[in-house]
Amino acid sequence: MKTLREVIEQTIVLKEKILADQQLLDNAEQAATTITQALLNGQRVFFGGNGGSAADAQHLAAELSGRFFLERPALNAEAIGINIPFLTAVSNDYHFNDAYARYLEGAARAGDVLVLLSTSGNSENILRAAQTARKKGVITIALTGTTGGKLAPLVNLALCIPSADTPSIQEVSMLLGHFICGKVEYNIFGNQ
């Protein structure tokens, strides 16, 4: 087990890698611009993940639908994993791997945005959600680990965090997610 000092040092090293990764920084800016434009056009933003990433998806959706820094109207954002009766029914009647795709099949429209959080980029239900979203004309963004797994080539924009360590990827996903939410909020309401 690492000491707290070692964990903090590891986080610093990872964040220095991110600072040196201009493509990742540009992709985070592009994600904020893409979400801003979708919301200004009356579209919705969906967030999805599994386990800790599902909790992070809920957190980020709440930053937009509630508020982040500014006192402002709610934005149309939701996490796709929060409807437990739907998830359990689809998992029972079909398969868990189909649950998010099935939800998006009914709820998502062309021009919406789907942000998928997956540390490995290889979770089958996340991959199927990305495929369904693309078929429907939904813009897809991934927050994932160093390789992006099978998810990266399926999305419009991949933010690949340069780590294979799950807690580190989740920590940085929230850092990037908070940046994106703050930037979206400012882009839409910052001059009011």
Rounded average pLDDT: 97
Distance between the termini: 49 Å
Number of strands: 5
What is the overall number of helices?
A: 7
Query: What is the structural class?
Result: alpha/beta
- Estimate percent helicity: 40-55%
**How are strands sequenced across the largest beta sheet?**
2-1-3-4-5
Dominant shape: globular
Give, in order, the helices and strands.
HHEHEHHEHEEH
- Any low-confidence stretches, pLDDT <50, length ≥5? none
Strand content: 5-15%
Keywords:
192 residues
Explained architecture:
It is a single chain. The protein has 192 residues and is an alpha/beta fold. 55% of the residues lie in helices and 12% in strands. The protein is built from 7 helices and 5 strands. The protein has helices at residues 4-20, 22-40, 52-65, 84-93, 99-107, 124-135, 166-189; strands at residues 45-49, 77-79, 113-118, 139-144, 157-160. It has a 5-stranded parallel sheet with strand order 2-1-3-4-5, sandwiched between helices. Helix 4 (84-93) crosses helix 5 and helix 5 packs parallel to helix 6. The protein starts with a helix and ends with a helix. The mean pLDDT is 97.
Set out the fold topology.
Layout: H1 4-20, H2 22-40, E1 45-49, H3 52-65, E2 77-79, H4 84-93, H5 99-107, E3 113-118, H6 124-135, E4 139-144, E5 157-160, H7 166-189
Parallel strand pairs: 1-2, 1-3, 3-4, 4-5
Helix pairs in contact: 2-7, 3-7, 4-5, 5-6
